[in-house]
Amino acid sequence: MCGIFAYLNYNVNRERRYILQVLFNGLRRLEYRGYDSAGIAIDSDPKALPQRSSASDSDPPPIVFRQEGNIESLVKSVYQDVAKLELSMEASFSTHAGIAHTRWATHGEPAPRNSHPQSSGAGNEFLVVHNGVITNYEVLKETLIRHGYTFESETDTEVIPKLAKYVYDKANEAAGGQVVTFSQVVLEVMRHLEGAYALIFKSSHYPNELIACKRGSPLLLGVKVS
Ligand code: GLU
């Protein structure tokens, strides 16, 4: 069965190798029925603190890995891509926000472009993993296309990150700066969505934050304090 999983470590140093393992194990625990593809998004290497002007504009965008097939195919391709991208497995993160997904396609064939996380576009400003179906996605897609958005997948899900970017840009344009919180963006997006869903959002504009929300689908939140 399709499933969403996220992992946020906060104020505790973890290497990328460990973070990837947590995400893969989260997906493996959801692996009790059929699914056709899988994907994850992880943070890029953070820049050294003295080079930063602000939290959101200095770090490179999150990195997305998507693969058709089972979780072990994803694991294999992630390790290959990590090597190609020359990302260090030993890179250490004191805060890290990762999201993961196993997909059971409802809209669009199983293929990397239709796998999740789905993205708002270049730069991965907003990324979403989704369990469920958005029943009014066609009308949302038409509206977003009219506003200049181009779509890469056939999924119902892709409207969600694109709508988040639209809401974010509109709010900030009007105010002339970043005024909305991540949860305000997500609440506004939810107002437009019909159907059943559990979602996790990740955004380059809100590093070190994830937003989870649901309507209809189940979602569990676990907190570990060490
Ligand atoms: N409807 C979405 C899709 O087809 C999500 C399916 C799922 O819950 O895995 O991509």
UniProtKB/TrEMBL annotation:
Pfam families (alphabetical): GATase_6
Gene name, Swiss-Prot/TrEMBL: GFPT2
CDD domains: GFAT (cd00714)
Coiled-coil spans in chain: none
SUPFAM superfamilies documented for this protein: N-terminal nucleophile aminohydrolases (Ntn hydrolases)
Gene source species: Stylosanthes scabra
GO molecular function terms noted in the UniProt entry: glutamine-fructose-6-phosphate transaminase (isomerizing) activity
Stored InterPro entries: GATase_2_dom, GFAT_N, Ntn_hydrolases_N
Protein name: glutamine--fructose-6-phosphate transaminase (isomerizing)
Reaction(s) the record says it catalyses: D-fructose 6-phosphate + L-glutamine = D-glucosamine 6-phosphate + L-glutamate
EC number per UniProt: 2.6.1.16
Record keywords, A-Z: Aminotransferase, Glutamine amidotransferase, Transferase
Domain Glutamine amidotransferase type-2: 2-226
